[in-house]
Design brief:
Layout lengths: L5 E4 L5 H10 L3 E6 L9 H8 L7 E6 L4 H10 L4 E4 L5 H11 L3 E7 L6 H7 L4 E6 L29 E3 L8 H8 L3 E4 L4 E3 L2 E2 L1 H12 L4
Parallel strand pairs: 1-2, 1-8, 2-3, 3-4, 4-5, 5-6, 6-7
Antiparallel strand pairs: 9-10
Length: 217
C-alpha cells in the first residue's frame, strides 16, 4: 500500500533533473543559493529552471543567512513559492523575511542530540514549516547537504504544531525505514539521489520517491 508522503528534491541544477523530479511526483523542488555548495545555482539559472516547473509543485529557494539585498534580487527574478532558511537565522529574522516577501518560510533545524530539539519550539511559532536535518559536523563548510543522518530515535513519537520535513543523509535504501520510524509525512533529499556531489541521477530520484511512498518505481 502506498503512503501519502510528500517529497522535496533539493539542490537541482539541471532541467532534466527538474523534469525527473516533477514526473516522479515530487511535491517540492529546491534550488540552492549558497556558493560553498556544489549545488549552488545563479539567480538567472534558477529562474530558467523554475519557469519549467508546472503549477502544483512548490519551488523552494534554499538560502543561508542571506541579507535583504540578496533576497531582494532572488525574489525579483525567480518565481518562488517558499523560502528555506538554512543558516543561523533567528526567530525574529524568520518573521522579518515572511513579512518582507510575503512567502511561506521553511526553517531548517540541525539535530545531533536531544538538547537540539529545544530549538524547534523557538521556531514553531514563526515558521510555516520546519526541516529537521542532521547537524553539520564541526568544521563543516555547509549547514546541510553533507550526506549525514541523525538518530531518528530522537524524534520518534514526537509531533509539532506545524508541517515538517525529515532530512539528513536519506537514500532510496533508507527512506522507507525513516518514514516508518519517525512518522514523517514529508521528506527532503539532496545528496541521496546523486551520483557525485551536485550531480543528480533521474533514476535515483524516481527510486527515492517510490520508496518513500512504498510504491514501485
Amino acid at each position: 500500500m502506498s503512503r501519502d508522503v510528500r517529497v522535496k528534491i533539493c539542490g537541482l541544477t539541471e532541467a532534466r533533473d527538474v523534469a525527473a523530479a516533477v514526473e516522479a511526483g515530487a511535491a517540492y523542488v529546491g534550488f540552492v543559493f549558497f556558493e560553498k555548495s556544489p549545488r549552488h545555482v545563479s539567480v538567472e539559472a534558477a529562474r530558467a529552471l523554475a519557469l519549467e516547473v508546472p503549477p502544483g509543485v512548490a519551488k523552494v529557494a534554499l538560502t543561508v543567512d542571506a541579507d535583504d539585498a540578496a533576497l531582494d534580487a532572488l525574489c525579483a527574478r525567480v518565481p518562488l513559492d517558499m523560502l528555506q532558511l538554512h543558516g543561523a537565522e533567528s526567530p525574529a529574522r524568520v518573521s522579518e523575511v515572511k513579512a518582507r516577501y510575503g512567502l511561506p518560510v521553511m526553517k531548517a533545524i540541525g539535530i545531533a542530540e536531544a538538547a537540539d530539539l529545544d530549538q524547534i519550539d523557538r521556531y514553531a511559532g514563526v515558521a510555516d514549516q520546519l526541516l529537521i536535518d542532521a547537524k553539520p559536523p564541526p568544521g563543516a563548510s555547509r549547514p546541510g547537504g553533507n550526506a549525514l543522518a541523525f538518530d531518528w530515535g530522537l524524534i520518534e513519537g514526537r509531533d509539532w504544531p506545524l508541517p515538517w520535513l525529515l532530512a539528513g543523509g536519506l537514500t532510496p535504501e533508507t527512506v522507507a525505514d525513516a518514514v516508518a520510524r519517525t512518522g514523517a509525512r514529508q521528506i527532503d533529499v539532496s545528496s541521496g539521489v546523486e551520483v557525485s556531489p551536485g550531480r543528480k541521477d533521474p533514476a535515483l530520484i524516481r527510486a527515492f520517491i517510490a520508496a518513500a511512498r512504498g510504491s514501485d518505481a
